[in-house]
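Feature request, filed as a ticket because there's no other form

It would be nice if the structure record came with a short human-readable summary line next to the tokens. Right now we just get the raw output. Example of a typical job, pasted below so the devs can see what we mean:
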Amino acid sequence: MATTTSHFSATSHCNSVSKLVDFGSRSGGKWRPNLLLIRTLRSRPHTRSFSVKNASGEQKTKPKNPISDGDASSIASSIKNHAEFTPLFSPEKFEVPKAFVATAQSVRDALIINWNATYECYDRLNVKQAYYLSMEFLQGRALLNAIGNLELTGAYAEALTKLGQDLESVARREPDAALGNGGLGRLASCFLDSMATLNYPAWGYGLRYKYGLFKQRITKDGQEEVAEDWLEMGNPWEIVRNDISYPVKFYGNVVSGSDGKKHWIGGEDIIAVAYDLPIPGYKTKSTINLRLWSTKAPAEDLDLYAFNAGEHTKAYEALANAEKICYILYPGDDSLEGKILRLKQQYTLCSASLQDIIARFERRSGSKIRWQEFPDKVAVQMNDTHPTLCIPELMRILIDVKGLSWNEAWNITQRTTAYTNHTVLPEALEKWSLDLMQKLLPRHVEIIEMIDEELVKFIVCKYGKADPNILEKKLKEMRILENVDLPSSFAGLTLKPKESSAAAISEASKLNVKDEVDSGDEPQSKGEPKSKGTQKKEEVMAEPPPKLVRMANLCVVGGHAVNGVAEIHSEIVKDEVFNAFYEVWPNKFQNKTNGVTPRRWIRFCNQDLSKIITEWTGSEEWVLNTEKLAELRKFADNEDFQTQWRAAKKSNKMKVASLLKEKTGYSVSPDAMFDIQVKRIHEYKRQLLNILGIVYRYKKMKEMSAVERKAKYVPRVCIFGGKAFAPYAQAKRIVKFITDVGATVNHDPEIGDLLKVVFVPDYNVSVAELLIPASELSQHISTAGMEASGTSNMKFAMNGCILIGTLDGANVEIRQEVGEDNFFLFGAKAHEIAGLRKERAMGKFVPDPRFEEVKDFIRTGVFGSCNYDELLGSLEGNEGFGRADYFLVGKDFPSYVECQEKVDEAYQDQRRWTNMSIMNTAGSYKFSSDRTIHEYAKDIWNIKPILLP
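Raw output as currently delivered:
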């Protein structure tokens, strides 16, 4: 019999396709055909086919999956089939957990058809493809998003009803994928949705974290961290590719071979295995891929001799070391072991992904591989500095493995890679210990040293030797290696690195790696100050400053494009953060303001509002073309439109009231204003300013009679959510304080529903999908000049929420689009911040009496017995680490309190407030991630949409 081959052999999805192409299963050792599915496939028209050739050259077809036609009976049969023949649960009952898994597997069948077709098309056309590398992808639940994009929501709801379940309950059973934490990961996930929807040939790469960041619990002691359990019941969306794995090496030595090449030998070897997740586009066949790497060691690394000798821990050591790389997102790095683990994570992502990208390039190239064409077929986007090792790793592979010259490899690398910057603070840019990197990645350090030497040559050539001061300044700003002597060929050109003060040494030691988890567009925390005893010891020892590798500088030098993520941020990047590089390579620098997908963040999470928008704009075109949202402006004062708008908001608030009762036990009134601040807990995001404002409000209420407070204050439910990085003590103090304030205020019978304070535990995408549609006021109150962009501000505005905030990040552009009258602005401006800090250091700051009043009130013990001296002490004094109010809470407090009074005034006029709400949604049209991806594709990646036949 002639054997057949197909595209399925190249892009195998065997686990899921079995029900589509094998038409049966084994049960109890006997073959049991899936007769229902076979009959359905035979009876339905083949509206789509895939070319398959057998050995004789005859053409065959693969039938279309029947569920994609939206027939509820076929879908119900598919779900039942998966419940019976691809079970992860016992057969006795068809309960919600089993229903979710079977439903997800059914949807995955439909996605696989488009998934295979998408990549068959890309392979056949050999198109240029973009690869988005990120340490985080904050996906959220996938079921409703997938069936929404496939336009099968109604069909699946009907099918599940036939099976005795309801779609909403089944969808709620899905855990959020614990693959991210903040803005960085959510941005990456929005981008994947837009790439698929816009038919761009693109792919995401990340790590498959088994336990995520952590699951947050709120107790009487504040935040408690426990491991995420999102994979304990399996992940029905993923497909493990056991045939796609790559070796990754650590440690070892570099030797020169007789062939003149460098060889990295010895050390520790692990294996990175691919797990794939389908990412469907909206109203398109395009289904792209998120490939996640999991790590393991080969079975032969289990030391059987040690195991049988009873030394079990020793026997399993190599396997455990490999597996733990993908255990935790952002493992704590206070220890050397923690730093090593983080660097291992970053290198694993880069090495496995590049090996995979290169293998795909070679396969598509066929017998004639032209490496100079690599940048014409591949674009690698580094999301923040975490994937910086792509640059030396690509150089290593091209030179050591593929045999290219240095100049050829460098030209290819620069044309292939690009970097997105996500922080405005130079001191927060990621740096690694050169000694640690030398030990873990010796060959990469050699390559980085050569890149640094070439950069030094360029700087000397550019600025000459006539003015040593200018030359030394440029070298200090631009070099990749910090506190490292110049290469021997430049010895004596400038002064050697000077001995630094103890304070500088202490600060530099904290910057070996970003201490805080990310955040997308956010600067990192610096942890806790060292004890006075430790500082005295350092002063005596006076050790030289550590030698560091500046990852951001390597990104700028090694890539062809650098982009900020909001207009104000991109200007700061050019004028301050990378000004020296901008002066010599101005064309490298671009702005790409962040965006969010309107599918997940309006269409699917806010169906009540979506129906109204569709009705009044005349179609659902706005879901793909958000410029249609601007048409809502003409209805902003229409009484019928406003009535419907308020009803949609009230419906969403009632859902959140139920959520808060379930999660916290607190009952809140849906008639009160919902005032929400949800984001990573960090001093610069100033949740502390928010809660101090609430405390001031509470104090003033207590000083009034019941009649007075009811006349003056609008009822508010103040909702907080977000995680504090586990070692970040000050952030955890803020969480504790918020919950203590809530425990007091929420049980005060004099205040009642006039004020509630609720901290939602374990904030994630699914919680956001409920909170954001219900929000009426959202707080984006970071110290000006410190938030690179933000994306939650865009989601809130898109859902008709009015923002209170500073002129920071994307707030600036949002305010421009929604109108100054529809944004509550307060606080110092970005250009004022440095002067205000200097004024504080000189002892000239005079705190507002209201600010002092709040602190004194807290210290009376009204919110419990906890000692908040350290929390409040950070707002006092004129200098010192952890003091002197670095984030200007005290400076902005009076402006913030006065702005909140304007909020109350506006909310009392519901016609005015509803008008403002509508204008926010109408003005959010520019903040779709579709627009952002179009700009990346045109300006950085040079890729074009590919429409599937």
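Something like this underneath would help us a lot:
The longest strand covers residues 268-280.
The chain is about 45% helix and 15% strand.
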